[in-house]
Specification:
The protein has 4 helices and no strands. The chain is an all-alpha fold and 114 residues long. Helix 3 packs across helix 4.
């Protein structure tokens, strides 16, 4: 008998705060990369994921990151590296939206702009 895979973000173990943010953003159900990655990342495991553009990779790693950050601790708790300025800004904006209910602070730092 096969174990049934989670089909909602709540099934993945995300907090009510983050679930509320996802609802406000119009997210309805997790994509395959999110179903596979989020539970592992919430458990503190390392993940190397690969999926096509537009499949929800940013949420797959940013949602567990937001869950694991202590908003009362003002020190740097995570670093996300992106290969381009545009992607860095996109990832920062998405992470900010996911973490807003938990008061997670996000800062995009990039070079190459005069």
């Amino acid at each position: 008998m096969d174990e049934e895979k989670p089909t909602t973000f709540a099934d993945l173990g995300l907090s009510e705060d983050v679930l509320g943010a996802l609802d406000a953003l119009g997210y309805e159900e997790p994509t395959p990369i999110q179903v596979q990655a989020i539970p592992l990342l919430l458990a503190g495991r390392d993940v190397i994921g690969r999926a096509a553009t537009g499949t929800g990779k940013t949420a797959a790693f940013a949602l567990p990151l937001v869950e694991r950050i202590d908003p009362e601790d003002r020190s740097v708790q995570a670093l996300i590296l992106a290969p381009t300025r545009e992607l860095a800004l996109q990832v920062a904006e998405a992470t900010h939206r996911y973490g807003a209910p938990r008061r997670v602070s996000v800062l995009a730092v990039y070079g190459g702009q005069a």
